[in-house]
Amino acid sequence: MRLNEIKDKHGSKKVRVRIGRGIGSGVGKQGGRGGKGQTARTGVAIGGFEGGQMPLHRRLPKRGFNKWRRKDFNEVNIGALQQAIDDKRLDAGKPVDLAALVAAGIVRRAKDGLRLLGSGEIKTKLSLTVDHATGSAKAAVEKAGGTIKLIEKKVLAADEAKRKKTAAKKAAAKKSGGGTPKKPAGETTEE
Description:
By secondary structure, the chain is α/β, with parallel strands linked by helices. The protein has a domain at about 75-150: CATH 3.100.10.10. About 25% of the residues lie in helices and about 10% in strands. The chain has 5 helices and 5 strands. It has helices spanning about 55-60, 80-85, 100-105, 135-145, 155-175, and strands at about 75, 115, 125-130, 130-135, 145-150. The strands form 2 sheets. It has a 3-stranded parallel beta sheet with strand order 1-2-4. The relative contact order is 0.08. The model has no long low-confidence stretch (mean pLDDT about 90).
């Protein structure tokens, strides 16, 4: 065998079919796209449309809801804190908060707050400032001689106003003896 005799295996390289290049090609004129209209044009992919068949996103039931004011917390285990202290990335003498964890590289970027979880073990005394801590995390930190300070939740003015308005309505309804008065049986509103 010589170099000029080397060929690809038969059938390994297929020639691309050129669509819409004349009657003789067998795929000329409309090129397998049917008549005119939206789907005969280029770049059409109607998202979620399955040709009239009930699409998957409508066949499956709705479930749950998305809280529009949901907070996304950074979650850190106490084991990760101890590991960072052992690696000398985190100074146990200084107060530990979200900014300190970002600086130490434990948290990549700050989100809406910090949630402390109880997985792992902690031996070092720490002063932590977090938005939320699990019971096991609190117990472990306090057992090691540390303290956890929880950040107060900010109540939005709109929420506070709504709560007061609802409470006032309830109080007024209770005072007047309920909601709308009920009509006696058999009485009509016609005149």
